[in-house]
Amino acid sequence: MSDDNKPEEIMFAQALNMAMNKAMADDPKVILLGEDIADKQGGGVFKVTAGLSAQYGTERVRSTPISEQAIVGAAVGSALVGYKPVAEIMLMNFITVAMDQLVNHAAKLRFMSGGQTSVPLTIRTTTGAGTGLGGQHSDMLEAWLAHVPGLKVVAASNPADAYGLLYSSIMDDNPVVFIENTPGYFVKGPAPAPDHTVPLGKASVPREGTDISLITYGSGVSRCHAAAEKLAADGVSAEIVDLRTIAPWDEETVFTSVAKTKAAVVVHEAVKSFGTGAEISSRIHEELFSDLKAAVGRVGSGYAPVPFSPTIEKAWMFNDDDVVREAKKILG
Amino acid sequence: MSDDNKPEEIMFAQALNMAMNKAMADDPKVILLGEDIADKQGGGVFKVTAGLSAQYGTERVRSTPISEQAIVGAAVGSALVGYKPVAEIMLMNFITVAMDQLVNHAAKLRFMSGGQTSVPLTIRTTTGAGTGLGGQHSDMLEAWLAHVPGLKVVAASNPADAYGLLYSSIMDDNPVVFIENTPGYFVKGPAPAPDHTVPLGKASVPREGTDISLITYGSGVSRCHAAAEKLAADGVSAEIVDLRTIAPWDEETVFTSVAKTKAAVVVHEAVKSFGTGAEISSRIHEELFSDLKAAVGRVGSGYAPVPFSPTIEKAWMFNDDDVVREAKKILG
Amino acid sequence: MANTDMADKDVLTDIFTRADLIMQSDIKFRQMIGAGQLQIVYYPVRGQEVVSAAMMAAVNQDDYLVTIYRGLHDQLAKGIPSKDLWAEFAGKVTGTCKGKGGPMHITHPETGVMVTTGIVGSGLPIANGLALASQLEKDGKVTVCCFGDGATNIGAFHEALNMAQIWKLPVIFLCQNNLYGEHTAMAESTSSETIKQRGEGLGVRSVRVNGNDASEMYAAAKEAVEFARAGSGPTLIEAMTFRYHGHLLGDTSHYIPEAEMEQAKKDDPMPILRQQLLDLQISEADIAAIEKKNADIIEEASQFALDSDYPPGEEYRIDVLDVEIAA
Amino acid sequence: MANTDMADKDVLTDIFTRADLIMQSDIKFRQMIGAGQLQIVYYPVRGQEVVSAAMMAAVNQDDYLVTIYRGLHDQLAKGIPSKDLWAEFAGKVTGTCKGKGGPMHITHPETGVMVTTGIVGSGLPIANGLALASQLEKDGKVTVCCFGDGATNIGAFHEALNMAQIWKLPVIFLCQNNLYGEHTAMAESTSSETIKQRGEGLGVRSVRVNGNDASEMYAAAKEAVEFARAGSGPTLIEAMTFRYHGHLLGDTSHYIPEAEMEQAKKDDPMPILRQQLLDLQISEADIAAIEKKNADIIEEASQFALDSDYPPGEEYRIDVLDVEIAA
Ligand SMILES: Cc1ncc(C[n+]2csc(CCOP(=O)(O)OP(=O)(O)O)c2C)c(N)n1
Ligand SMILES: Cc1ncc(C[n+]2csc(CCOP(=O)(O)OP(=O)(O)O)c2C)c(N)n1
Ligand SMILES: [Mg+2]
Ligand SMILES: [Mg+2]
User: Fold this and answer.
1) Quick check: is A3 in a domain?
2) D96: which of B171, D52, D65, D88 fits an S-S bond (Cβ 3.0–4.6 Å)?
3) For residue A2, what pLDDT is reported?
4) Where are chain C's structural domains?
5) How many CB atoms are closer than 10 A to CB A200?
6) Shortest CB distance from C99 goes to which of A63, A65, A312?
7) A325: closest CA of chain D, how far (Å)
8) Is ipTM > 0.90 here?
């Protein structure tokens, strides 16, 4: 925070950069790998790693070839012997070429070795529709990763959380996939204090309410805030739960909220069917069935690849009005 | 069926072989690709394609290098121009190296081309725990695929269905992933008539009951039959719904069953959390909430990679007793 | 590099006609985006016109093409009508793909353009599949697969070349080596001196040419096409070229040394090719007529793109599967 | 192939000691499985003993190893105590990985065995990561990465060699070329004549040796290790060898022409190496003592494996994450 009364604001991309900077300063074992991430190559296509190679050298901040399997493999191998690599997979769709390294190796080596080794790597990747990049550059694939035992999955909804969560992810002794939101890189929010921390596995409740719980994460949080405003105008008091860690997620905070409101909608940008919302909805039913006013609702994007044309993309994509509609449906 | 009264029985592997044989005989555009699938290489590591290269030639039945991206890519490309390739990915874990071809291309090209092209390929792959192959050869990853718009996902629970469903998958104009069960290859069941068909998207009800619906597919079906027997002994009448097509799944048959029994357990071998059971459970709640006696239950395997040692594998893996326990919990 | 004779007049005129359409289209796209008339992510092709113009002049319209996000030059050279292409770039319902694919995902089967992909390297395995179909079909078609130098560092490149070679598939892997992958110089990401060397390591017939020289590029293309049609298998063509306007529009090329950029601009293939036509006694008037015709095509196409409608939102439920998805 | 001088007495004795332990272990595993005492999927290593014995004799215990499902020879040669290894193969709680990994997933950091993988080709990118750590740490370690000929057709091979070369990583890619990948002959799946050629295509220092000749293999290994430790970068060693008992136990090798198998058996590296010791005036009694000692180790280890307990079922909730998973 700056000295005057208005809190200083920073962008998401800056917060991420600060988190990596702090991690690299705190621990010489933190290294960065990724395409074009060093300053000579521009400090990352979205400039998230700008300045870090200048500060820590290109031994620790390495621009790589276009070889996602080799990138994640290098992270796995160095993590096995004490490094804390942060590998950038430029866009989330590109993890499709590195799923073997992530799923069969990063997530499993601790277990298969009987706990002799661990894989404390972090994969940073960005995605999200609304940028006009079309079908192969916008997918939200967190449901795949959440289904893989041994992987943690994290998504932040504001710069301060991004700072705290990315730092925690890097320092965590498990493999973590940290999902960023491309259109959100330039969104501002209050700056975190340098020692600000956010633990993995703990959800937050950025808005309290009494009538219905909106459970979400990442790009869903701003949609839920917008929806909550609209609902408030209609006399409905919505509480927002921001999961922050998608897997393993904070059941306690979610159940506490829904036990109070007795109604819930799970909201995410990913395609609705077989998305993470299904697991959260199921668990709420399993724990709180008889308390619920109605079945838990879900909001997600449509059953289609991300469309290019803005009209179709908009119709396909989840938005705050979908949340309002679903909440009202539930509340009858 | 043979002439005497006892129906002829065949193994799963045989049924699959017969389905491919029929498809190749019916349509010269059907071709097979995969590692070691031609007879010179043994007709497939599980002999599922045995004899087909002898019958149709090695132009149409091609053993490939160990190159899963190239295998699926060859299937995508040939499918774009009228072929109906059936590509074998030897074990399901190996799709992790070919997810880009499957997800970013096979599933999306119809949409991204505005319907100008289609990708009528079939990926056959096998998996399943219980074979002592450990962490990298047994995963059930159908939830990933079901979450991808544009992909169909199919799993059969008996040889006759396998025959009908694989034939339908090959002839379907959409990309289909057909999941086989390794320990089930040598399980026998009644032989299908040569003209036996099973449409995609239609579930079956192999056992009728009135008290609870067990909704499952693939290797879950035999577990549910065993559980239903045990439940029957305790006076509980369980109905079994075999989805057969996991995505898009037959909501109508499921909802009809649960509307009758007013209770349900979704059962699958895959890791429970964020598995396909979550989607099915959520949809049942969304449609039938006020009819239900209790929350829909779920049975799946534990949150861990597939363990090697038989004791841990057994403790980790779903089984019929888990289904019985979950059903009884629901029925109070 | 090969020492080739000059291609004949008609061929060079054909190549120039295609290349000029590409160059003018690229300029127009950059203008319109700069002016805010179009809001799209655009991968400029200025500098690489001759590579694809010469390549596509050596194949037939029904031969197949697989290309990448930086694909405008390949798509135009292969013959996609400008109106359809412009409308798709603009996301309009009149576009090749009804606005669903966009610039990174152009398909146009009538001109053989089967796939445009945004995933580096992933086109190569698919190109094999098209070539496999042709081999089985005995239809005599070849498949041209375009990609960049950076793409040769990804696994799919390796797998595809191996498979194409053992099966002797009629496919031409055209590596348009512009010396940069995004902001990374080839020398900093690529272990071998040349891409040709990689093809040779895989036992694939491989050549390296000045892709900016129309005659040399055309000769290499022609030879590769004949080799493929004869059933002799794939060729890897490493075509040396350059891109003048960065990875995507807005990129300042800060990572390209000034001297390198200056030299590259001196070697601009377009004025060189134009001069070659003049040297072959093609009149300035004839050349100007070609340029005018291209300008008219672009004028009409860009206007058509602007005037066309966006697709209706509900269109997203169509073409996901072979049946419409319920709302 | 290289023309190397015979390695000295001590080195050859060391290699023989390791190789004989491997050979006898392989025989014993096949016996016990055949007799129903063990129920596991087993990938025989008979025939490939000398490749890994000579390789591991050239590195230190704290150098890293990444290997594959067919890894018993590499793991023993690297020094994993037989008891721990046998117990893991048998799925017992006393095994290297508490029975969680099994034969395809052996890890044993004390002897540098960091990863054993069942996914073809996937070890190479991970080996780079270990070597990267050593490079940053300046700990002077090298990483040896073992894989087969078939693995050179998968993308990860290509990506890993490229990255290792541009970063000059201290890694040795040891391709144990037994001429078959499962049931497919190398010539039917591999576009290049040799694997060495592929390394050269990628600009990587590459050698091809008779891996069944202890001296030749050891010299190549030693050279690669020195090259890596000097910071000069990776080496690809293509070590020619053969496997006599199929891809996995039960495989009849029907796909191997009889004459080829016969010749390969004549070239069996084990009797050749034993004769070399005798030629170097190592007495029959000394050799027999080595063999006896190995036999005793194996006897004890196999009995230990049989006698040990299986892990408790609930063990599956431990080591998934750094905290125990709730029941
Ligand atoms: C698998 C994958 N990784 C990364 C990217 C991001 N990316 C898009 S283009 C590009 C550079 C490709 O360079 P090159 O192959 O030389 O082609 P050029 O753009 O120079 O034509 C990169 C890294 C991607 N699209 N796909
Ligand atoms: C990605 C992947 N594809 C396929 C397989 C199945 N598979 C296991 S071993 C093997 C053959 C490998 O041959 P090679 O690399 O020569 O090693 P070798 O077994 O001969 O030692 C295959 C195809 C696999 N494990 N992983
Ligand atoms: Mg380039
Ligand atoms: Mg081999």
Assistant:
1) no
2) D88
3) 44
4) 9-302
5) 19
6) A312
7) 37
8) yes
CATH of the domain at A316: 3.40.50.920
A186 in the same domain as A91? yes
- Same domain, residue pair A289 and A312: yes
**A150 and A106 in a common domain:** yes
Pair (B169, B54) in one structural domain = yes
3-state DSSP assignment of residue B36 = coil
Rg of chain C in Å (alpha carbons): 19
Instruction: Pick from D67, D117, D146, D182 the residue to mutate for probing ligand 2's pocket: most ligand atoms within 8 Å of its CB.
Output: D182
- The answer to whether B135 and B101 have CB atoms below 8 angstroms apart is no
For residues A179 and D255, give the distance between their C-alpha atoms in angstroms, rounded to a whole number.
Answer: 48
The chains in contact with chain D, meaning 3 or more Cβ pairs closer than 8 Å, are A, B, C
CA distances in angstroms from D164 to A31, D63, D123, D207, D236, listed in the order given: 17, 17, 13, 16, 11
> What does DSSP say about strands A152-155 and A176-181: parallel, antiparallel, or unpaired?
parallel
Ligand 2 cavity residues, CB under 6 Å = B 35, 66, 68, 90, 94, 97; D 70, 118-120, 147-151, 178, 180-182, 247
CB contact under 8 A, D125 and A72: yes
For residue A235, the enclosing domain spans 204-331
Query: CA separation (Å) from B124 to B59, B164, B165, B183?
Result: 19, 14, 12, 15
B177 CB neighbours in chain C (<8 A) are: none
Question: Does residue A76 share a domain with residue A17?
Answer: yes
Interface of B with D in 60-119 (CB under 8 A): 63-69, 93-94, 96-97
Contacts of A63 in chain D (CB under 8 A): none
pLDDT 10s digits, C29-60: 999 999 999 999 999 999 999 999 999 999 99
Say which of B137, B196, B225, B268 is annotated catalytic.
B137
B134 interfacial to chain D (CB closer than 8 Å)? yes
Q: What is the CA radius of gyration of chain B?
A: 20
Query: Please, which pLDDT band fits residue B1 given cuts at 50, 70 and 90?
Result: very low
E strand or H helix that includes residue C69: none
Confidence band (pLDDT; 50, 70, 90) for C1? very low
Residue spans of chain A under pLDDT 50: 1-2
Q: Which of C285, C206, C277, C286 is nearest to C238 (CA)?
A: C206
For D9-302, CATH gives 3.40.50.970
Alpha carbon of C162: minimum distance to chain D alpha carbons (Å): 5
Q: What is the pLDDT of residue C12?
A: 97
The pLDDT of residue B2 is 44
Chain A neighbors of D163, CB-CB under 8 A: 64-65, 67, 70, 74
Cα–chain center distance at B111: 25
Are A115 and A160 found together in one domain?
A: yes
Q: Are A150 and D96 within 8 A, CB to CB? A: no
**Which residues of chain D lie closer than 8 angstroms to A174, CB-CB?**
321-322
Contact B298, B273 (CB under 8 A): no
Annotated catalytic residue B147: no
C148 touches chain B (CB under 8 A): no
The domain boundary residue, chosen from A155, A190, A225: A190
The answer as to whether B297 is a domain residue is: yes
In a domain? residue B137: yes
Site of tokens 């529709």: A129
Of A70, A81, A104, the CB nearest to D133: A81
Q: What is the CATH number of the domain that holds A99?
A: 3.40.50.970
B196, part of any domain: no
Count: domains in chain B: 2
- Of the residues B27, B33, B60, B78, the best mutation for testing chain C's interface (the one with the most C CB atoms within 10 Å of its CB) is B78
Which chain A residue's Cα is nearest to D165? Answer: A65
pTM of the model: 0.98
DSSP symbol at B148: S
The pLDDT confidence band at residue C327, using thresholds 50, 70 and 90, is confident
Query: Is residue B129 located within the same domain as residue B214?
Result: no
